[in-house]
Design brief:
Elements: E1 2-4, H1 12-39, H2 59-82, H3 91-108, H4 120-144, H5 154-183, H6 188-191, H7 194-220, E2 226-228
Antiparallel strand pairs: 1-2
Helix pairs in contact: 1-2, 1-7, 2-3, 2-7, 3-4, 4-5, 4-7, 5-7
């Protein structure tokens, strides 16, 4: 049986979880805003990858959005660890950290500018993207799996698990494109409109992080801190500080050698205390 653990109304963990979720939402607003600006021209521009924004005048918007996603992800993970949902050395937590590291590489090393040609920065950028895209589904599934059947956190865990699986499915078109490249020789980025596929994948993974953020907010609420309830059965010998039961023994009366109070009349059939004089 679980009961709410009394705690202060204001919890630092709760503020951290709210800040992490807000950072993820701001990422969607910033990067989504860039796509809306492109849509005013032509939807054809969305065939290009999201990271191409880093090659133009809106790089600061793109970089800010990705950095916010990194910080928000780490804040959400810190709350989940702090509230006992997982541990730092668990595979799920490490995969969540790998997601953040991969996104950091995406910001530090811009993609190839094909007007110039391939570069080391572009190769590191591609590696960071793959690390992030692969790590996030693993993190969501492994973080959620131990709690799927939990009475308190089961609903949050199941949603996180589902979004992790959906993220993995969203990545499968890229795996298929790489397989086609290996078998047929067609450039993998030409098998599908890469920009569309990437946007579906990124949106799914960002929503997965946001769902984990909702979980972190819920478990950081002071009233939701669960602990084992105390055993309602009394301990042996409980009752007084000295451990002597406070209930009188059956048939007890005035203590031996003590005269009854004035006006007290012994019960019928009860011998008076020796030496006691009636009032």
């Amino acid at each position: 049986m679980l009961t709410a653990d009394p705690a202060p109304t204001r919890s630092p963990a709760r503020y951290l979880a709210l800040a992490g979720a807000a950072a993820v939402v701001l990422t969607v607003v910033l990067v989504g805003g860039l796509d809306l600006v492109r849509l005013t021209g032509s939807a054809h521009h969305l065939r290009r990858t999201i990271s191409e924004y880093a090659l133009g005048p809106y790089r600061w918007v793109f970089d800010t959005g990705v950095v916010l996603l990194v910080l928000g992800s780490l804040a959400i993970l810190a709350v989940l660890v702090g509230r006992g949902m997982t541990r730092w050395h668990s595979v799920g937590a490490l995969a969540f950290v790998a997601w953040s590291v991969g996104l950091t590489l995406v910001v530090i090393f811009p993609k190839n500018n094909w007007a110039i040609g391939p570069s080391v920065s572009g190769s590191i950028h591609r590696f960071g993207s793959l690390v992030a895209f692969i790590s996030l589904p693993i993190a969501m599934v492994l973080l959620a799996r131990p709690w799927v059947r939990d009475a308190v956190w089961g609903a949050h865990a199941r949603w996180t698990f589902r979004l992790g699986v959906l993220s993995a499915l969203s990545f499968s078109p890229l795996l298929y494109a790489i397989l086609v490249n290996a078998v047929v020789g067609t450039s993998w980025w030409r098998v599908f409109p890469l920009g569309y596929v990437e946007r579906v994948l990124v949106l799914t993974e960002v929503v997965a992080v946001l769902v984990a953020g909702v979980w972190a907010i819920a478990c950081s609420h002071p009233a939701r801190g669960a602990r084992p309830a105390p055993d309602p059965r009394p301990l042996p010998g409980a009752g007084t500080a000295s451990g002597i039961a406070s209930a009188p023994a059956s048939g007890t009366g005035p203590a031996s050698g003590t005269a009854p109070a004035p006006g007290d009349v012994p019960a019928p059939g009860t011998a008076p205390v020796p030496g006691a004089q009636p009032a």
